[in-house]
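Quick one, tokens below:
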């Protein structure tokens, strides 16, 4: 019987869109899907990988969405950041129920529900094998949770960003709308920017490029993908230098 592979990454940051938490619903949080995510995270956590996550808020409210049209941009973005806190608490609940100790750290201070984001505290939690969920984006309007993910990954010295999406990688067009869409196995940061591919926003990609932080885009719904990635299998699309 072949020996099980060990992880090739010590510390990873998982980027989840708010829409991912919809599961099969059209609004809000699908509890069965957050439970599934918790099991996937527990799987790699059990390998000894230190795990952090950034969750978006698009399943509840997004500052640049149609529902925010006409609102002051700062107010709309603040509402979006608060939505990420709701999602973070939901994911924390699912993780705690599968016996994974988890801490939510928010860029917007709200001590009754989350710890304030302090970089050294976040790193200490991870060293103690606690999963850390970063909520509240960057705490500033005009910045997406993609940018928050890139920033937090740099701050905690993550080895890689794992971006879970609805498709199994990066394509030249939307594969859900175009059956002839071409999948990329590997891209450079510059190619992503040059081709205008909607992987992460340009600020996030530029941050990763400046700091040589690789990104893997994979299908969140494919069970076992996280384990395969952290043990060195080629899954989805990798963006690197």
């Amino acid at each position: 019987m072949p020996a099980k592979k060990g992880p090739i990454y010590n510390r990873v940051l998982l980027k989840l869109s708010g829409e991912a938490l919809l599961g099969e619903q059209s609004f809000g949080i699908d509890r069965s899907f957050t439970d599934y995510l918790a099991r996937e995270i527990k799987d790699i956590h059990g390998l000894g990988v230190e795990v952090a996550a950034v969750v978006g808020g698009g399943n509840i409210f997004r500052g640049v969405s149609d529902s925010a049209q006409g609102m002051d941009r700062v107010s709309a973005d603040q509402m979006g950041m608060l939505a990420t806190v709701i999602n973070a608490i939901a994911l924390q609940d699912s993780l705690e129920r599968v016996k994974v100790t988890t801490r939510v750290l928010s860029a917007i201070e709200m001590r009754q529900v989350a710890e304030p984001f302090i970089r050294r505290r976040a790193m200490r939690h991870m060293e103690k094998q606690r999963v850390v969920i970063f909520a509240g984006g960057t705490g500033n309007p005009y910045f997406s949770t993609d940018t928050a993910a890139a920033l937090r990954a740099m701050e905690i010295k993550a080895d890689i960003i794992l971006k879970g999406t609805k498709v199994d990688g990066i394509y030249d067009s939307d594969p859900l709308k175009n059956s002839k869409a071409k999948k990329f196995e590997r891209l450079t940061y510059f190619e992503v920017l040059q081709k205008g591919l909607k992987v992460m926003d340009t600020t996030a990609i530029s941050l990763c490029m400046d700091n040589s932080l690789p990104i893997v885009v994979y299908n969140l719904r494919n069970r076992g993908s996280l384990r395969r990635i952290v043990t060195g299998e080629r899954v989805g699309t990798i963006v690197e230098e």
